[in-house]
Amino acid sequence: MSGVERNDHGEWNNLLHGFIDGELDAANAARFEAHLTTCRECADEMENALMVKRLSAREGVKWQAPEAVHARVQAALSLEQAIMTRTMTATHPTESSWQRLWQFVRKWSFAPSLAVLTASLMLVLNVSPQSQTIEEQLLASHVRSMLADHLTDVLTSDQHTVKPWFNGKIDFSPPVVDMAAQGFPLVGGRVDYLDGRVVAALIYRRHGHVINLFIWPGAPGAHGSAEKDGYNLVEWHADGLVFWAISDVIASDLSAFRDDFIRATAP
After folding, report:
1. What is the DSSP letter of 21?
2. Which residues pair with 216 in a beta bridge?
3. Which element (helix H / strand E) includes 97?
4. Do 109 and 12 contact (CB within 8 A), yes or no?
5. What is the average pLDDT value for the chain, to the nearest integer?
6. Cα–Cα distance for residue pair 255/249, rounded to 1 Å
7. pLDDT at 232 > cutoff 90
8. Of 165, 164, 171, nearest in space to 152 by CA
9. 62 backbone dihedrals φ, ψ, rounded to 5°
């Protein structure tokens, strides 16, 4: 990355680390997530950092790198530092230490499952939102919410805490209900970014599966459903709001969730 590019991305680099550590407020988190959908460079950098963070935090990791590997890493980092010192004023880009470490992680394949998740996330992040259907945007937000440790901004099953939390963060009031009695307990809420605007997201669970319910103002229409890449989606409208639920639960469970939510929020 050249010096000019580093300066251009200075603000986003600062937001990136705050986003990964969960230190951003709701508005900046939503703004950064929207930026990720259009910036391959920031998406790549986030995935590099996320992978290293997840690897270092995994429980039960017993693999111990040989001393020869440690020596190779130290040598590579020392060489990187020397190259960066000599080429600070050069015009050609130099591969960052994060990128070298990411290549090392990929080569040794510490966590194949994480690599698969990373690849999935890159697929949904590297498409411009202008070229995505609403279903594709919903899928991207659903997957991103689980992979980027940003499932909730407010983590509680108390609907009377979640609903007022949205005050001042969005320009409408989403209905919030806990449906634990129906088998869909409320987990919490967050703000997200879809179709060019900030939206509300309520998070529910069904037998360990996550259901993201996205809500924003919109015109009334007929109920709809869809399936995309193994995920089921259902849509409905009520009181001037659009509702989209997405999950990897079976279609009948998601339809039951929709019906139960409509009944629970009916006047």
Report:
1. T
2. 242
3. helix 97-108
4. no
5. 75
6. 10
7. yes
8. 165
9. -110, -10
Integer CA distances (angstroms), 95 to 4, 87, 88, in order? 15, 11, 12
Query: Rounded mean pLDDT of 231-241?
Result: 93
Neighbour count for residue 122 (Cβ, 10 Å): 14
Dihedral pair phi/psi, residue 203, rounded to 5° = -115, 125
Strand intervals (E) in the chain: 154-155, 186-194, 197-206, 209-217, 224-228, 231-238, 241-247
What pLDDT is recorded for position 117?
Answer: 47
Residue 99 pLDDT > 90, yes or no? Answer: no
pLDDT in tens, 139-168: 888 888 877 567 888 888 899 899 999 998
Which residue, among 158, 150, 169, 157, has the nearest Cα to 215 in the 3D structure? 169
Structure tokens at 72: 């190779």
| All residues at 6 or more sequence positions from 262 whose CB lies less than 8 Å from its CB, including other chains | 236, 238
Whether the CB-CB separation of 255 and 223 falls below 8 Å is answered with no
| Side chain identity, residue 173 | S
Give the DSSP per-residue string, 109-174.
Answer: TS-HHHHHHHHHHHHHHSS-GGGS-HHHHHHHHHHHHHHTT-S-SEE-S-HHHHHHHTBTTBSS--
Residue 55, both tokens:
């690897």
Indicate the length of the chain as a whole number.
267
Ranges 95-104, 137-146, 218-227, most confident: 137-146
